[in-house]
Predict the 3D structure of the following.
Amino acid sequence: MVQSKYVAALAAMFQLVSFLGAQTSFAAAVLFLVSSLIALIE
């Protein structure tokens, strides 16, 4: 059943997004890390 796997993956991704949304400081730290990495590459 490919469709049920797809739905399960979607649900897991939604849970992850909502969890990260609750961790605002963590999300900000990740954003800072990504932006600094991009600055390093450029």
Remarks:
- The chain has one domain: 2-41.
- DSSP finds two helices and no strands in the chain.
